[in-house]
Amino acid sequence: MTETGAAVLSARRADDDDLALLLLIRHFELALLDLFGRGELNGTTHTCLGQEYVPVALRRLLTGADHVFGNHRGHGHYLARFDDPAGLLAEIMGREGAVCGGVGGSQHILRDRYVSTGVQGESLPVAAGVALHLKRTEPGALACVFIGDGTWGEGAVYEALNLVSLWRLPLLVIVENNGIAQSTPTTRQMAGTVRARAEAFGVRHHGVETSDLATIRDELAPLVAAVRAGEGPLVVEFATHRIGPHSKGDDTRDPETVRRARDNDWYRLYGEADPERFERADQAQRARVDAIVREVSARPPSRWRP
Amino acid sequence: MRVGENLNAALHGLLESDPSAYVIGEDILDPYGGAFKITKGLSTRFPDRVLGTPISESGITGLAAGLALCGDAAVVEIMFGDFVALAFDQIVNFAAKSVTMYGSRLPIRMVVRCPTGGGRGYGPTHSQSLQKHFVGVPGLSVYEMSPLHDNRAVFDAMLASGGPCVFFEDKILYTRRMNDVGDLFRHDVLPGAEDVARVFLEDPEAADCVIIAPGGMVDRVVTAMRSLLLEQEVTCCLLVPSRLYPFDAEPLLPVLRGARAVLVAEEGTAGGTWGSEVAHRIHRLMWNDLRRPVALVNSADSVIPTAAHLERAVLVQDSTIHDAVLEALRD
Ligand SMILES: Cc1ncc(C[n+]2csc(CCOP(=O)(O)OP(=O)(O)O)c2C)c(N)n1
Ligand SMILES: [Mg+2]
């Protein structure tokens, strides 16, 4: 899944807004690992380091009427939908202003038409139900669900694919295939391919091999429009790279594998494409996140009654 | 020795002594060795019988039942016990039923291991204690890990039972020491009930209060026993059964008779609890001898929140037990 030749060499293009968001998510995730390292966070978290560009690319293809289902690695999914790093951090830290009162934490978030939960595979059938609702009541809107490669081990995924294909429901499945599930390489947990599985249900599949936002959007725009037009569900599979641990301090991959993932890091590729603008944006987002961490850490605990 | 190490050693011992034994689960292979490191070293020693699987709780639990159907012994690790809900059908409708539904007894040697409970800030879908949902299923036994029970003996008992077992492991215990009940108390095995451990001050049959609790509660109950003794001069005897269901209250009666109050403490949330099953059995056996009904201590009727301060407010704490004992002893 390493990008080769032309793909790597082609410049990465992002406007200022996209770049700011990419870097916001990056520094948000780094800040979380740092907080954990200093013993200031409770529980666990899964960062999307290396995969930030996936929800950022998609956000311009989605509308406010669409429902989005994030997953366990969902901070980027949330931040690409809401410019609310303080609310998310407060949720993770259990502080005042938390999106869900500190009850849900990193993995369980509901806000407007965004929802995530921590049990793999559960969200697909639910998203199918949402898609059914949208098809009747808000034609043109869709349900978008993010899942990892490993989550294709769950039977619920196939029950949902069958339903949405049979009933031509507006479901967009975004597969973040980072080649690993927790500690298990995809090659040791998936027989066949995501493409063949989707196609077996008569569901259209599109593979994305680049982290260039403009290319991704160009490729996907007509396909997503077809989902909206009632032509049935779509599976988009991103070949992506997890450059951090699964959660925290639990990366048992060999250094060579991690190095290969890092070579594909959008952060490096975008940095090389436009160093000065990138550096400015990077500094700005780092400073923004630092300030948010300071501000949220000083807040009182969230309040909630069972 | 830590409880987690004891459990790991039990699995090593099982695979070593029983060539038909398998251990199956997600991310259990070395070098990772499982989300809680309980399977460390197993796959290196027994590569063909320790299988890392896709994320397929229902599938792998059914797979274990298939091995058991052929006479093998199968241990499944569910990464977080919460996900055993995905395997509920295989456990309840296939494995447990198969023991008797074909008209003659069919041994099904399988154990579904469930790292359980809160206190670690993992949030609502990674912190539950689902024991109560498996109580009262014909053919199914429910066990719980305890710092007072050697895991190898418990595994031998589960596999010898001939029926499928769900084994709940309070995650907090993994890093606790085996057989640690502090400096004030002693522990032994309840006479007449090999699988019930007992923690007491001097004379177990002369305690003011008897607390019945599964292994995951031992720390909290012992802490409460300590504060009750030092602050209130109240003596308690703790009974810890390894098998939660089926539950035989008969051997407990001599200890219960001497007490002014009986409590059942568990981490599961209120409503339809294991404790109410235990209480019912005790009521039937000794209603007329009880000063008051058996008291239940459990977590609040709530999801388990993620934030530490909110989680604490929902889950049973040692102070919850302390207060409940005083309440039960009030005249
Ligand atoms: C039903 C269920 N089983 C197991 C887990 C534990 N778990 C959380 S994330 C994860 C790996 C998921 O891998 P993948 O879908 O590839 O997503 P990635 O973590 O790579 O983003 C596992 C096994 C879970 N959350 N839910
Ligand atoms: Mg993955």
TrEMBL record, chain A:
Residues 24-261 form the Dehydrogenase E1 component domain. Keywords: Oxidoreductase, Thiamine pyrophosphate. One of its GO terms (biological process) is pyruvate decarboxylation to acetyl-CoA. InterPro entries: DH_E1, PDH_E1_Alpha_Subunit, THDP-binding. It comes from the Bacteria. It holds the Pfam family E1_dh. Its cofactor is thiamine diphosphate. SUPFAM superfamilies: Thiamin diphosphate-binding fold (THDP-binding). Transmembrane segments: none annotated. The keyword Oxidoreductase applies. GO terms for molecular function: magnesium ion binding; oxidoreductase activity, acting on the aldehyde or oxo group of donors, disulfide as acceptor. PANTHER family: PYRUVATE DEHYDROGENASE ALPHA SUBUNIT, PYRUVATE DEHYDROGENASE E1 COMPONENT, ALPHA SUBUNIT BACTERIAL AND ORGANELLAR. This is Dehydrogenase. The lineage of its organism: Bacteria, Bacillati, Actinomycetota, Actinomycetes, Streptosporangiales.
TrEMBL record, chain B:
Keywords: Oxidoreductase, Pyruvate, Thiamine pyrophosphate. InterPro entries: PDHB_mito-type, THDP-binding, Transketo_C/PFOR_II, Transketolase-like_Pyr-bd, Transketolase_C. One of its GO terms (molecular function) is magnesium ion binding. Its cofactor is thiamine diphosphate. It is an enzyme of class 1 (oxidoreductase). SUPFAM superfamilies: Thiamin diphosphate-binding fold (THDP-binding), TK C-terminal domain-like. One of its GO terms (biological process) is pyruvate decarboxylation to acetyl-CoA. Residues 1-176 form the Transketolase-like pyrimidine-binding domain. It comes from the Bacteria. It catalyses: N(6)-[(R)-lipoyl]-L-lysyl-[protein] + pyruvate + H(+) = N(6)-[(R)-S(8)-acetyldihydrolipoyl]-L-lysyl-[protein] + CO2. Its EC number is 1.2.4.1. The pyruvate dehydrogenase complex catalyzes the overall conversion of pyruvate to acetyl-CoA and CO2. This is Pyruvate dehydrogenase E1 component subunit beta.
